[in-house]
Amino acid sequence: MVKTGELELLQLLEKIKAGDKEAFKEFFFIMQPRIMAFLYRFTSEKEAANDLCQETFIKFWLSKEKINLSSFPKAYLYQIARNLALNFVTRKPPVTSYDNDENLLISLSKNPENDYETLSMIDDLQKALNILPERCKTTFILSRFDGFEYSEIAEIMDVSLQTVKNQMNKAISVLRKYLSSRFD
Question: What is the CATH number of the domain that holds 42?
């Protein structure tokens, strides 16, 4: 069953596959914020995420003939983003920096007493995510932050559904262990 919004994306992807630049532009405006957020969570660097996001869409357009319309409509785009992010993090050690992140500052509570605690919690979560093996990290981000179902994650990562379940269990176990001291 195709979700609302997914049908629109599927129609855009059909046009993109045929070389329609206007459809690609519309698809870009719909998907860019999601891909940017995914890459930022993965890299912890705003500038790197922005560069990888642009590279993702360029690679997507250049290989548009590989789009599988019978599968999950966004899977191919996320596969490209994931591969670029993995290449980036293996070349560079993880960094946890929230400097100049206006969105984070805006999203913080209006209560100044809670700002430090919120920043500290976000920093702890990012550190915990950074210690996860890459496959676990990707699975967790796609599930918990991007809202993908396990079957969609399996498609994006080109693994079995059972592998996704195993990776998610492992990610939750590691995160629970790492963050347990924070909540004791």
Answer: 1.20.140.160
State the first-to-last Cα distance of the chain, in angstroms, to the nearest integer.
Answer: 43
Q: Is residue 67 part of a domain?
A: yes
Judge residue 31's burial from the number of C-beta atoms within 10 Å of its C-beta, 0-12 exposed, 13-18 middle, 19 or more buried.
buried
What is the residue range of 41's domain?
6-183
Residue whose entry in the numeric block shows the structure tokens 């206007």: 22
pLDDT in tens, 54-113: 999 999 999 888 887 777 767 889 989 988 988 887 776 544 444 444 454 455 445 555
pLDDT per position as a tens digit, 105-147? 455 445 555 556 666 677 777 788 888 888 888 899 888 888 8
13 within a domain of the structure (yes/no): yes
Q: pTM for the complete prediction?
A: 0.66
Domains identified in the chain, total number: 1
